[in-house]
Amino acid sequence: MLNALPYLMTAIVCLQQPTVVVGCVQNALLNWVLIQIIRQPRPHSSSYGMPSGHAQAAAYATAVARPSMRWPLLALTAVIAAQRVVEGYHTPLQVVMGLSLGGLLGSVRLH
Question: 99 vs 1, 46, 56, 60, 85, CA distance in Å?
């Protein structure tokens, strides 16, 4: 369930605010393109993981969410970020890059 949580968060935010749907798609495409360009492997896998798509999706959803939803989503984003590292899916740098990109794209989308 925790693996699907960032994408569920993004879907809920997008459904509540249809104007950010384009940004949700852009965020996912940016993640895919960067993974193909950077090609940094995950800690215990041959697949690529820079930047973390889960962290990026969660940070984006938090950034574009309604103000009343931001604190709960921020807490979930922290849990997701920690889980990605603790379970060995990503290095800390991959998660920090995902958080930074998602937050930045979400902030830009709001202005």
Answer: 20, 22, 5, 8, 13
CA distances from 11 to 4, 54, 68, 86 (A): 11, 13, 17, 25
pLDDT tens-digit profile, the chain (111 residues): 556 777 677 777 767 776 677 888 888 899 999 999 999 999 988 899 999 998 998 899 899 888 888 898 899 899 999 999 999 999 999 999 999 999 999 888 766
Distance CA 21, CA 43 (A): 32
Distance of CA 62 to the CA centre of its chain: 9
